[in-house]
Amino acid sequence: MFMARQRTARTAAAAVTAAAAAVAAAPVRGAVRLGGGRLWAAGLLCAALAACQAPVRSQASADALPPGSAAAAWQQARIALPSGESLRAHWWPAEGPQAEPRPAVVALHGCGGLYAQGDRLSQRYRETAARLHAAGYSVLLPDSFGSRGLRSLCGTRYGARDVTVAVRAQDARAAIAWLATQPGVDAKRIGMLGWSNGATTALNLLEQRRLHPAPSDVPLAGVALFYPGCGPLLRRQAELEPAPLLMQLGALDDWTPAQPCIDFAALLQRRPGTDVTLKVYADSYHGFDGTDPVRLRADVPNGTSAQGVHQGGNPAARVESLAALDAFWGRTLGARTQP
């Protein structure tokens, strides 16, 4: 059964390949960025200010981050939301003199939440915090689920979720506004990173900021996304606040399929002044940047098949996508990148 579904998925992926190639071949009006290596890519044109209490300094548990990591010491921030709720966040200020403002990244978790067990951050977020911090960035990880007494929403149908992407977009908006006021943060060099539900949240935030700008909004220097869900944005032909955008997708993704994002990127391509880089990785499912083996998740009801979705890493795509992410931050935020 698993092998049969893989063959079907690869047939569908061939169609995605053709669509991506068509987008790449289309006339462009703006920055064009093409992928390379094993990836096949479509290169495209390219709350009021939230008050919060002072961050509370915490020490991560011994296994929260890689041993000896400079990012092992973190602070807990609580950010007041317009709704009156308090958003908890993990906060790693960049090291160095505060007189030298540094870039910062707000990272939005997926539908599984921030934690693996107890209060232990999942491996993806531990690695991300350590990697970004080592590269000279401040890092903020808002906890949209834990702040509301939830751990995961992956097994809940989209229409039944209490914490929607619209709710999370307001969390992200407040988090960015908070981040821009922190000592040592260069408000002109703030990036946003998201995975899956967090990536979809980021796109929805860009739409909301375009439609309803707020005085507290600061321009984002770059937005990097792994496998967002683009279907609703495509159907309503959403307009986004301008920001350099990197979207990295899996060709075999049956949870948030690549095709709607390819089509949405083509829509953005027709709008002047857009800077979008789209990379689609062959033989890759949802979560290709992780290290877990591919498995069928029958507990997820939101994919393209009633049988569930596939999730898991692709070692080659992981290496290439993280390198592309480093290069994107280097271009948009300007801090040093990983060797």
Give the secondary structure arrangement, pairings included.
Layout: H1 2-25, E1 40-43, E2 52-59, E3 73-80, E4 86-92, E5 102-108, E6 115-117, E7 120-121, H2 123-134, E8 138-143, H3 165-180, E9 185-195, H4 197-211, E10 222-226, H5 231-235, E11 245-250, H6 258-269, E12 276-281, E13 295-297, E14 309-311, H7 315-332
Parallel strand pairs: 5-8, 5-9, 9-10, 10-11, 11-12
Antiparallel strand pairs: 1-12, 2-3, 3-4, 4-8, 6-7, 13-14
Could you give a short description of this structure?
By secondary structure, the chain is an alpha/beta fold. It is 30% helix and 23% strand.
Structure notes:
This protein has 339 residues and is of the alpha/beta class. It has one domain (75-333): Alpha/Beta hydrolase fold, catalytic domain (Rossmann fold), CATH 3.40.50.1820. It is 30% helix and 23% strand. The chain is built from 7 helices and 14 strands. The chain has helices spanning 2-25, 123-134, 165-180, 197-211, 231-235, 258-269, 315-332; strands at 40-43, 52-59, 73-80, 86-92, 102-108, 115-117, 120-121, 138-143, 185-195, 222-226, 245-250, 276-281, 295-297, 309-311. The strands form 3 sheets. The protein has a 10-stranded mixed sheet with strand order 1-12-11-10-9-5-8-4-3-2, with helices on both faces. The chain has a two-stranded antiparallel sheet with strand order 6-7. A two-stranded antiparallel ribbon has the order 13-14. β11, α6 and β12 (276-281) form a beta-alpha-beta unit. The radius of gyration is 19 Å and the shape is globular. It starts with a helix and ends in a 7-residue tail after the last helix. Residues 22-54 and 56-64 have low confidence and may be disordered.
